[in-house]
Design a protein that fits this description.
The complex is a heterodimer. Chain A has 7 helices and 6 strands. By secondary structure, chain A is mainly alpha-helical. Chain A has one domain: 5'-nuclease (Rossmann fold, 3-Layer(aba) Sandwich). Chain A has a 3-stranded parallel sheet with strand order 1-5-6. Chain A has a two-stranded parallel ribbon with strand order 2-3. Chain A is globular. Chain B has a domain of 66 residues. The longest helix of chain B is centred in the middle third of the chain and has 34 residues. Chain B is elongated. Classes of the chains: A mainly alpha, B mainly alpha. Chains A and B meet through helix 1, helix 2, helix 3, helix 4 and strand 4 of A and helix 3, helix 4 and strand 1 of B.
């Protein structure tokens, strides 16, 4: 269990989704207690990643479904007026991300797939670069990163630990699995 | 011989909030902050701590309500999405294997 009062934290896109689908009363209570004390920090890249998904759904939906998804998007945007805070991509963050991308150019895990569909290599690479920029945001703000994909973030943490001189004044990258928050 | 306290002080004391002596174990840094806060306000550490606790107890229910509102918003932003749609708003774009060929 991670004490919500030990925040603030930066939430990765998939970690934020997990918190939006709490699996237990304890998980829901963790979100309430945390957000009573701290803003829900996300990287602005998370907003891009998520909003792109909503817009793609809206684009392909019929009229009724479109209204429903537009409502989902509005609720998401509204959460930024209430409690979420998006951390901008700044030059120092861009430099950190570029350094990480040069050291870890390839996605460490394979493209995602379901029984009928698969993520293209191009989309996988793009998602990897989003993850790198999210990690760089956490690093620059010295915020622990709450995530749901250790296979992607662990290599970044390891490379920063292995070559700290490439990351002067920042690090280590503190990773916390979203599954550990309330358990 | 013991002398009783002046009447005026006793009277003033009767208007004060009833207090109780207790022992708390606090994180070192929090105690230091409370001591600093008390110094700045020319208060005793006890009255500064009482003020801060009272303030926290006043604010906490509103903060908790804010936290519940936030969770509700987050849940609403994902409400009704299928598993695949949720993946899409998580940044994962899945395509049918022949979609690119079309």
């Amino acid at each position: 269990m991670i004490d919500p009062a030990s925040g603030p934290f930066l939430f990765d896109t998939s970690a934020e989704s997990c918190l939006g689908h709490p699996q237990s009363a304890a998980e829901a209570e963790w979100v309430v207690t945390y957000s009573a004390r701290f803003p829900m920090y996300v990287a602005v890249l998370t907003v891009v990643e998520r909003a792109r998904g909503y817009f793609m759904l809206i684009e392909s939906a019929g009229p009724v479904r479109r209204v429903e998804v537009e409502r989902n998007l509005l609720e998401y945007v509204h959460s930024f007026e209430i409690h979420s805070r998006a951390l901008n991509l700044t030059v120092p963050i861009a430099l950190l991300a570029a350094q990480l991308m040069s050291l870890c150019p390839h996605p460490p895990s394979p493209p995602r797939h379901s029984h009928q569909a698969i993520e293209s290599r191009q989309d996988r690479l793009s998602r990897w670069r989003f993850d790198v920029m999210i990690a760089a945001t956490a690093l620059a703000h010295n915020l622990p990163l709450i995530h749901n994909n250790p296979q992607d973030f662990e290599p970044l943490r390891a490379v920063i630990e292995r070559i700290p001189e490439r990351f002067p004044g920042v690090g280590p990258l503190n990773l916390i699995s979203v599954k550990r928050l309330a358990s | 011989m013991l002398r009783s306290k002046p009447r005026t002080r006793a009277k003033a004391a009767s208007h004060r909030v009833r207090t109780r002596r207790t022992t708390l174990t606090l994180p070192h840094n929090i105690l230091k902050d409370v001591e600093q806060f008390a110094r700045e306000r020319h208060q005793t550490v006890s009255s500064a701590a009482a003020y801060l606790l009272e303030e926290a107890l006043r604010v906490e229910p509103r903060a908790q309500a804010g936290g519940r509102n936030f969770l509700e918003l987050l849940q609403k932003s994902f409400a009704g999405l299928t598993e695949r749609e949720q993946m899409l708003v998580d940044g994962i774009i899945l395509e049918e294997p022949d979609a690119g060929a079309k």
